[in-house]
């Protein structure tokens, strides 16, 4: 198995493409990323990281956490609100109303529901601050 995985995967290291600026949280950016594929094992989909203020959180389904978030850019509020979803969360830890700020590793995605599109973060890693 060691021959199949790189060092980052073996150590659980998350490689990020960096922090997005407030104006980059847009459907346009998500569409550009979607069109930039195809993504695969040797060419992974862009993964971003950053700190976010938690505005709302709730459990959906059996183990998925739906969040309403505000990106904090360089520690400052951005007045941007965005949905995020984390799948298969640890139910002993989440949801947690005492958590006001999180650090995330996420992918930008487009949520399509009843003919409407909205920006959504697909959360790969969620850490309370």
UniProtKB/TrEMBL annotation:
Its EC number is 3.1.-.-. Residues 17-125 form the RecJ OB domain. Keywords: Exonuclease, Hydrolase, Nuclease. It holds the Pfam family RecJ_OB. GO terms for molecular function: exonuclease activity. It is an enzyme of class 3 (hydrolase). InterPro entries: RecJ_OB, SSDNA_exonuclease_RecJ. Transmembrane segments: none annotated. PANTHER family: SINGLE-STRANDED-DNA-SPECIFIC EXONUCLEASE RECJ. This is SsDNA exonuclease RecJ. It comes from Vibrio cholerae.
């Amino acid at each position: 198995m060691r021959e199949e995985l790189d060092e980052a995967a073996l150590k659980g290291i998350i490689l990020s493409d960096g922090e997005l600026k407030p104006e980059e949280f847009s459907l346009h950016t998500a569409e550009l990323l979607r069109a930039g594929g195809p993504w695969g094992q040797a060419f992974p989909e862009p993964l971003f990281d950053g700190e976010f203020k938690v505005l709302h959180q709730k459990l959906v389904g059996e183990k998925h956490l739906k969040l309403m978030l505000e990106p904090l850019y360089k520690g400052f509020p951005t007045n941007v609100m965005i949905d995020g979803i984390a799948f298969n969360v640890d139910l002993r830890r989440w949801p947690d109303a005492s958590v006001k700020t999180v650090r995330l590793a996420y992918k930008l995605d487009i949520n399509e529901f009843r003919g409407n599109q909205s920006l959504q973060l697909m959360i790969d890693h969620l850490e309370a601050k």
